[in-house]
Design goal:
Blueprint: H1 3-11, E1 18-22, H2 28-38, E2 40-42, E3 49-53, H3 60-67, E4 79-83, H4 84-89, E5 93-94, E6 96-98, E7 114-116, E8 129-133, E9 136-138, E10 144-148, H5 151-158, E11 159-174, E12 177-188, E13 191-194, H6 195-200, H7 206-214, E14 221-230
Parallel strand pairs: 6-7, 10-13
Antiparallel strand pairs: 1-4, 2-9, 3-8, 4-10, 5-8, 11-12, 12-14
Length: 231
């Protein structure tokens, strides 16, 4: 990468290092849970492509404030992010915006990238959309991270409740027995960030966001309640 490009990428907050795939509807968080459980995106609507937006992380809080005013917004604040260079490396490409009659001038091999645009009538170019062909897209913790609305929701998705690596007992002696609660120690499976955290940042910048992600280690552990016990 040439030095001029490096300087431009660092200076412009409107240029994102990541691409985002958001869920939608009343079950948006549950959809995110299914994505994490399966370690993959699945093309349930048979579009043949997966869509991502290049909207910078720093712009997401304001974007979702606008969406909150609609009964059925196009996106909910739950989804996954992927490094742009990684998606490009596996075939992801920016959308080609144009008038519908221009589509036929494109090779059939790249028409999946085309999106119709009519200024002042139909214009989704603000999404800076990227697409990748396929019916399944595998996700991994090295190249992807999770987005949730609230910080309290992150742990439910970042740590694997089915992968208990230790059990912690907390209780007391009563009536000649030992009773209490058991908590399973779980391993981190993904990093993540919430819209709530982004809103609270004093300095809204890519550097601050990178610090949040860098502070999350895969040696971190979470907890899942396993229930009460009496011995």
């Amino acid at each position: 990468m040439n030095s001029t490009l490096v300087k431009i990428l660092k200076a412009r907050e409107d240029l994102s290092d990541y691409l985002f795939h958001f869920t939608s509807g009343a079950t948006a968080e549950r959809t995110l849970a299914k994505i994490v459980e399966a370690n993959s995106l699945i093309d349930i609507k048979n579009k043949g492509v997966f869509c991502f937006t290049e909207a910078p992380l720093t712009a997401l809080p304001e974007m979702f404030k606008i969406f909150d005013s609609y009964r059925s917004p196009m996106y909910a604040p739950y989804g996954i992010a992927v490094k742009k260079d990684y998606l490009f490396g596996i075939g992801g490409r920016p959308v080609i915006y144009g008038l519908m009659d221009e589509k036929e001038h494109l090779s059939e091999e790249i028409q999946w990238r085309f999106e119709d645009i009519k200024p002042d009538v139909k214009d989704f170019s603000w999404l800076r959309e990227w697409r990748i062909k396929g019916t399944t897209l595998q996700i991994d913790s090295e190249n992807f991270f999770i987005i949730t609305k609230h910080k309290s929701e992150l742990e439910d998705h970042m740590f694997n409740p089915e992968d208990v690596i230790d059990v912690v007992f907390d209780g007391c002696v009563a009536d000649g027995g030992f009773m209490g609660d058991a908590t399973g120690v779980t391993a981190r499976r993904f990093k993540g960030i919430s819209i709530e955290e982004l809103e609270q940042l004093e300095s809204m910048s890519k550097n601050e966001i990178d610090k949040i992600l860098a502070s999350q280690s895969f040696d971190d552990t979470g907890g899942v309640y396993l229930g009460g016990f009496i011995l």
